[in-house]
Amino acid sequence: MSGPYISFSEATEILKSELNFPEERAISFVKRFDHNKDGRLSAAEFSQFRSKITETKSQLVTKFKQFDQDGNGYITLIEASEILSNDPFNFPPGKTLGLLKQFDKDGNGKLDIEEFAGFYAEAKATNEEMASRFEQLDADRNGVLSPDEVVSVLKEMLGLDAANAKHMIEMFDTNRDGNLDKTEFMALWSSMFGQ
Questions:
Q1: Integer Cα distance of 93 and 85 in angstroms
Q2: Which domains does the chain have, with CATH numbers?
Q3: Are 118 and 21 in contact, with CB atoms under 8 Å apart?
């Protein structure tokens, strides 16, 4: 740390080396600690940033053990799917597979704790992003999205007319209740934007 400040790029490099954060997520994480929005971290901001890294590392070991159900030191697709398909994540199977492939650096089909760091950070960030989008759309706050709450987004973002937007919703309404729950919404969103 040079002087009383650390640059975003220096802080980003710390996250990438210590927690295997992907570049984009690392930058986003660092920006959360720039409270005065001056584009760098002061000594106080860096101290909070450092504390969060330490806390994240300790949580990571706990989460790794939770995912590694057979205790063999690796997270398999089956183990990851069992956790990510349930609350609070509710990821569709394809999303879990995509994440696993993205962070399985050695290509052995499973994650060690270093690979898991990036995998879990991305899963958590994606979940927070999806929850926020879902909450924005759930105008009546009933925990599901009605076709009316989703159609406008599909029309605006994909240029679909109302009939095609409703058809797309029906394609992802797997329980056929006429609404999209969080899992169904995530499947829809992932298919539209690959996120």
A1: 7
A2: 5-132 (1.10.238.10), 138-193 (1.10.238.10)
A3: yes
Whole-number percent of the chain with pLDDT over 70: 96
Mean pLDDT of 165-171: 87
Token pair of 72 as six digits: 């063999």
Integer Cα distance of 102 and 4 in angstroms: 36
Average of pLDDT values for 38-49? 93
In contact, 75 and 110? CB cutoff 8 Å: yes
Instruction: State residue 171's pLDDT score.
Output: 92
The dihedral formed by the CA atoms of 71, 75, 81 and 82, expressed in degrees to the nearest 10: 10
CA distance 190 to 195: 5
Name residues whose C-beta falls within 8 Å of residue 89's C-beta, 6 or more positions apart in sequence: 83, 123, 127
Q: Up-side HSE of residue 46: CA atoms within 13 Å toward CB? A: 18
Half-sphere exposure of 9 (CA within 13 A, CB side): 1
| pLDDT at 16 (0 to 100) | 83
Whole-model pTM: value is 0.65
* Pick from 65, 81, 76, 125: nearest CA to 104: 76
Query: Is the link from the previous residue into 88 a cis peptide, with omega within 30 of 0?
Result: yes
Predicted confidence (pLDDT) per residue in 2-26, tens digit: 458 999 999 999 988 887 777 777 8
